[in-house]
Amino acid sequence: MVRAVLLGPPGSGKGTQAARVCKARGLLHLSTGDLLRAAVKDQTALGLKAKGFMDRGELVPDELVFALLRERLRSPASGAGFLLDGFPRNVSQAGTLDAELGARGIARVVHLKLDDEEIVRRLLGRGRPDDTEPVIRNRLKVYRAETSPLIAFYDRRGLLVTIEASGSVDEVAQRLDAALFGRQGGL
Ligand code: AP5
Q1: In this predicted structure, what is the pLDDT of residue 74?
Q2: What is the pLDDT of residues 72-115, one digit of tens each?
Q3: Residue from 59, 138, 141 to probe ligand 1 pocket by mutation (most atoms less than 8 Å from CB)
């Protein structure tokens, strides 16, 4: 059973690649960004609380994010395996995830590596509401301060594989598939 995390800066291709590998391999794609955007669109109480943080490119408070994720992680559909996209985003969320999964734990973390110039170029070309240059720069700052410590956190546990996220979508997809299901037998 696959229990994996996709980690990387905004615009590194987490959503694109997660959707693709999950479709190909029958995994549950759990994107906290997508769950939060759906809550904002539906104007739920949680979505209304989250919106301002998202508009500014800040992290939404941990308890709101985990409220969206918890049931999905527990649902029978996750029995075949799941790929988390955009979660955990800080060390506290990683601890919450460990507590939730217990002994099953996360088995692999794939880190998508991409330089800032390419990130800004990709995101300005997309045009989501949080894809303006000042908000992209803030998301990058938040990534460095809050999320990038998870690279060393998971590396120390021997779970981390870093792959280059530049190149075509197909090229990155091949690297990701190898990182998740490589010759060593994958997960
Ligand atoms: P989230 O939705 O997770 O956004 P993000 O991490 O900033 O990532 P993006 O969706 O911008 O990029 P991506 O890496 O998924 O790349 P994508 O495939 O889209 O989070 C949004 C907000 O929600 C956060 O700022 C925060 O407020 C909140 N949030 C979410 N999770 C949270 C959490 N756990 N805790 C607290 N707050 C949370 O690709 C980007 C673009 O590049 C696309 O246009 C795509 O077509 C293009 N592209 C992809 N691959 C390639 C390629 N190989 N070559 C050329 N173009 C490419």
Answers
A1: 85
A2: 988 867 667 999 999 999 999 999 999 999 888 999 999 999 99
A3: 59
Taking 60 as the threshold, does the pLDDT of residue 184 lie above it? Answer: no
Question: Does the Cβ of 66 fall within 6 Å of ligand 1?
Answer: no
Structural tokens at position 40? 């904002």
Task: Specify the pLDDT at position 187.
Answer: 55
Is 89 close to ligand 1, i.e. is its CB under 6 Å away? yes
Q: Is the dihedral of CA 40, 138, 63, 49 positive or negative?
A: negative
Q: Which atom of ligand 1 is nearest to the CA of 17?
A: 18
- 47: Cβ below 6 Å to ligand 1? no
b/e map 55-93, b = 16+ CB within 10 Å: eebebbebebbbebbeeebeeeebeebbbbbbbbbbeeb
- Ligand 1 in reach of 111 Cβ (< 6 A): no
Digit-coded pLDDT (tens) for 114-132? 999 999 999 999 999 999 9
Q: pTM of this prediction?
A: 0.96
Quick one: DSSP state of residue 79? G
> Does residue 120 line the site of ligand 1, with CB under 6 A?
no
